[in-house]
Structures are given as C-alpha cells and as structure tokens.
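note to self — DONT lose this again. spent like an hour looking for the file last time. sequence + predicted structure for the chain T wanted, 346 res
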Amino acid sequence: MCCAYSDDFLADPVEPLPFEQIQIMVASEFDVEECFVDHDIPTFYVKYREDSKEAFLRLMEHLELMKLIPLLRQNQGKVVLRVLPKPPTKPNRNIINIALFFATLGTVFASGYFLSADISGALLFTGAIMAILGSHEMGHKLLANKHDVDATYPYFIPGIPPIGTFGALIQQKGLPPNKDALFDIGFTGPITGFIIAAIVTFIGIQLSTLVPLNPDAQVISVPLLFQLIAMLFPPSGAGEMMHLHPVAFAGWVGMIVTMLNLVPSGMFDGGHVARSVLGMKTHKILSYLGVAMLALLGWWPMAVLALFFSASNHPGPLDDVSRISNSRKLGAILLVAVFALSVVPM
C-alpha cells in the first residue's frame, strides 16, 4: 500500500524563532533578495541557482541542529523559503508492527489452507504473499531511511479469505527533502514488489497444471505479464484451462497490488511519483482520472478510497522548487510500463 504522512509536519511556531541566526544560515546558502518575519515565521525571498538543490540539503542539515525545517515554494514568480519548527514525533512502537505481522501471518495462512486444503500449500502461499507485501513496504522504508525521512516499519493488515490481508503500509513522519526523494520513496515500493510478484508468478505457474475446460470453474482475469509468463513457460498437463496453484494466485495478487498502488491518485505510490514529476496541478487532474480509471476497471472500493485521498492536496516535498533528475523521469516511464503489464479488470 502507499505511504501515509503524519498530519503535524507543518506545526505553527510556539515561540518566536531566532531570526538573525536563521538569516545568517540562509544567506550562507542562498542569495537572499528580501527577508521578514510573517506570523512569527522567518520568511525569505531567495534567488534560485543551479546549485540550489544541494544548498537546500545543506541548509536542512544546519537547521536540524536547531530542530528547525526549511520549506521552499514558488509563489507568484518568487522563490519563497520559510523556516518552521520541526514538530515533535512520537517514538515508534514496534510491538504493534510485530503483533500485526504475526496476526497477518495467521490470517494469510488460514486463507492459503482454504485455497489448497493442505499445510504445504498454505505455507507456500503465506511465504509468497508476505514476500510480495514485505518487499514492497521495505522498499519504501529503505529509501525513506536513505533520504533521512523518519518512517515506521510496515504495518501489515490482517484480512479475510481468499487473500487473508488487506495489504500493508508505512507511516512517514515528515516530508521528503526534495522531488528526487519523493520519487524514490514512491518508486521503489511498487518496482520491488513487482519484481517479487513476477518471480512468484513464474514459480506458481510451474506448480500449476493444465486441465480440461470446466464450465463450473471460477475464472479470473489475469494481467498481461501473467499471460506472457504462462505462454513462455507453460505449466504441465493437458487441457485448455490452468488450475492455479496457491503460489500462482499469490503472484496474481501481487500484480493487482502493484496496479492499484501505481494509480496516480492522492497519496498512492503512483500519486507520489506523479506529484514529483508533474507538479501539484497536473497531479490533481491525474488523481481524479485515476479514480475514473479504477471505476471503469470495476475496482469500486479502491475508486472510493482514491477519491477520498484525492480530496486534499498532496503536500509535496520540503523543496518543491528544485527539478527532478532526468533519470527519474525515465523511471516514471518504466512505472507506466509496469502498470500496463499489471492491469487486471475486476
């Protein structure tokens, strides 16, 4: 699932900030055109330079020692830098993550047993599902750590058969420093989960069997990648219908998870990527287009959730002025291809 942000990362200052000291620090990194205090918030109109992305990161490090954070925005043609107090964050209670992890193991195992009616099939299904979800969320977590964004370990959500889980998520307790970091955190989860889902699908198809057509069998739609793997590496047996092994079903679930997370709406992973590459206004339009796409594909519950997330503006990174790197723009094109390979109509 996507990353959730804490609601208090832009707290109002409780007491006046040391303006002169902050002014010296800002002037050491930026060309300051005008400075003043606006509602107790030190505010600076600065000149954007080619090295402003790196200058902002250096300023972040200096202000961190004072428990302050900078916020860089463009407003009416001016580049505005504000310095805010860094809000306190609650310590992570990993016992909750551990409890939810084991609870989800139990519900996924029960679902796997429901699908296969044997212990080995249930264990394989559980390992496949948890590997897909775990790799997805740890992709977010590791990149958050790389960019010094405070984030929790994954919260797994127990569920009901036939999957046994409603996914997982991490909570970010602050904003990424710039568009590059926002992209990386949104990109790494889906791409990692997709790779693991493709591997699981390959293994699962080899464990599946081809059987004669059965008009009473429950049939599911599969994404393009699933079809390609089955065509290139077909399962054993004689028949026109594939009887899915629980591991193959887990791979199918993983591709659905990838597809849903890459919808460019709100705070979904695809929303983070769209916000970093295309900006706030275009992301807002894409958010509602994503809602419509989910509805057309038949994923109504997710369409409602996406609509809820799209109601408020994405906060963006701390530095919302610096441009994203060209390599990450290519990465966004890769994610579009991954989405196309993972699309499954309900």
